[in-house]
UniProtKB/TrEMBL annotation:
It is an enzyme of class 1 (oxidoreductase). The lineage of its organism: Eukaryota, Metazoa, Chordata, Craniata, Vertebrata. Its EC number is 1.4.3.-. Keywords: FAD, Flavoprotein, Oxidoreductase. This is Amine oxidase. Its cofactor is FAD. GO terms for molecular function: polyamine oxidase activity; primary methylamine oxidase activity. PANTHER family: AMINE OXIDASE (PTHR10742:SF364), FLAVIN MONOAMINE OXIDASE (PTHR10742). GO terms for biological process: spermine catabolic process. It comes from Cyprinus carpio. FAD binds at residues 39-40, 223.
Length: 446
């Protein structure tokens, strides 16, 4: 029998987002040299994306490094490449009340810090929602404050913390998020905003692509069918390949393994027709039950800045907001525009909003451009791979992508590590021992 370590399997990666590109890069590092990436759109990067706004390049997808610690491979990669040396100064944090006055930054920050420590609580098995927990905890603090003004300010800042949290996790209601799910999420440290003309986040995509052969990256190749478990007839000589990947343009590729990295939203829409035979019921249930949130990112451009020159962020505090009411109520959409980030040059502002109907409203009132997309808010172990019992036909369909990371969903590092995880899985299968340096301990936990 052929030694597994001597085999040169054909591997296809579906999707050229961070997960797909990270998987492809790592497979190459392991010495697999028959790797092809198929991407539906005409661009690489997926949800790490840019657009031109006037003369500037803006990030329409990821822009924050969620976690500036050595634990975070995205941070490490960008830092090692020297890319983080160019980050522009972020400027001052400011808070304004909806009553028209500026709120003392120290007071706002203190209340914000207190709110954050309550909302980021990591309990386990309480059975409560994050909203319920947060309302209870903040009420305790609010009730202990005697001064009316101070109490109002405190509860409105606590509400701001709740709204910022909705944006962080791409959710629309804190009451629909399980408090228990927090115990799984890995906090890799403070977030770092890395906007700029050269889109630093997109340079991560370039880094992942650096050594990958360009002729093995096929754009505008939407995969329409994945026939696995030998569910197709081919010439006997080709029978060794158990997977057949069919593209929308009719092209067919035979492979030993396919790593599917398409987003949860696409999977929800496509899974029932994409796989032949259908995915096992257990897998389909996972895809159906997982949820994803909506985030709109809006860029506003002004001829002249109306904010002071040292301002980096503007947070709006609505004095009639209370923590218990935090949700993206459609009737109060304006109140969910609470966080503006100043982009360079200073005439630009960016704001996030988590509201489903926003794209309709946007056309009426917003000046420049918008990008909306989805991120996963809850993930379970959806990464289990598929294969038949035959030892050489194992691991036919593998799944990667941020949604498959129970501990890091909704982040670029989650996507990256999910790609590494599946490359490692194939390397272990083929007993490839030369492990690349980029592996971290986090991916082993998933
Ligand atoms: C607006 C927004 C802001 C965000 N901000 C941040 C942030 O600041 N920091 C952070 O860490 N994370 C952020 N995220 C999350 C982060 O961008 C994602 O977690 C990550 O980029 C997902 O990568 P992925 O490879 O898993 O999926 P994707 O990037 O979605 O890649 C999947 C790829 O598969 C392709 N595809 C789909 N169907 C098919 C098919 N049938 N055939 C072939 N190809 C197909 C898609 O075109 C896509 O290129 C943000 C996300 C959004 C939407």
């Amino acid at each position: 029998p052929v030694d597994m370590a001597d085999r040169n399997p054909v591997i296809v990666v579906v999707g050229a987002g961070v997960a797909g590109l990270a998987a492809a890069k790592k497979l190459k590092e392991y010495g697999f040299n028959d790797v092809t990436v198929l991407e539906a759109s005409e661009k690489v990067g997926g949800r790490v994306a840019t657009a031109t706004l006037g003369t500037a390049c803006v990030d329409t997808g990821a822009q924050y490094i969620h976690g500036t610690s050595e634990e975070n491979p995205v941070y490490c990669l960008l830092k090692k490449s020297g890319l983080l040396n160019q980050i522009p100064e972020m400027g001052e944090e400011t808070f304004y009340s909806n009553k028209g006055h500026k709120v003392d930054v120290n007071i706002a920050r203190d209340a914000y810090g207190a709110g954050e420590s309550m909302i980021r609580y990591r309990g386990s098995n309480t059975g409560k929602s994050l909203g319920e927990h947060y309302a209870e905890k903040t009420q305790g603090v609010i009730d202990s404050v005697q001064d009316d003004d101070k109490r109002t300010r405190m509860q409105s800042v606590f509400a701001l913390v709740g709204k910022d949290m909705l944006i962080d996790i791409g959710a629309s209601d804190l009451h629909r998020i399980s408090l228990d799910s927090w115990q799984y999420y890995i906090n890799m440290g403070d977030s770092l905003n890395i906007p700029g003309y050269d889109s630093l986040m997109f340079q991560l995509v370039d880094k992942l692509l650096e050594d990958f052969p360009k002729d093995r990256l096929l754009l505008k190749r939407e995969v329409s069918k994945i026939k696995w478990d030998g569910s197709f007839s081919v010439a006997p000589a080709l029978c060794q390949y158990p997977v057949c990947i069919v593209c929308e343009n009719g092209e067919e590729i035979l492979a030993d393994h396919v790593i599917v990295t398409i987003s949860l939203g696409c999977l929800k829409a496509q899974a029932s027709s994409l796989f032949i035979p259908s995915l096992p019921t257990e897998k389909m249930e996972v895809i159906e039950k997982l949820c994803f949130g909506n985030i709109a990112k809006i860029f506003l451009e002004y001829e002249e800045a109306f904010w002071e020159s040292d301002v980096g962020t503007i947070s709006l505090i609505y004095e009639d907001d209370i923590p218990a009411s935090v949700s993206t109520n459609k009737m109060q959409w304006l109140k969910n525009m609470q966080y503006f980030s100043v982009l360079r040059p200073k005439e630009r502002l960016m704001l996030y909003q988590t509201i489903v109907t926003f794209s309709v409203i946007i056309k009426k009132i917003i000046v420049i451009s918008s990008s909306s997309s989805s991120i996963v808010i809850i993930a379970v172990n959806g990464a289990k791979s598929l294969g038949s019992q035959h030892p050489n036909k194992d691991l036919q369909v593998l799944f990667a992508g941020e949604a498959t990371m129970k501990t890091l969903y909704g982040t670029v590092q989650g996507a990256l590590l999910s790609g590494h995880r599946e490359a490692d899985r194939l390397a272990a299968h083929y007993k490839k021992t030369v492990a690349p340096t980029s592996t971290t301990s986090v991916e082993k936990q998933v």
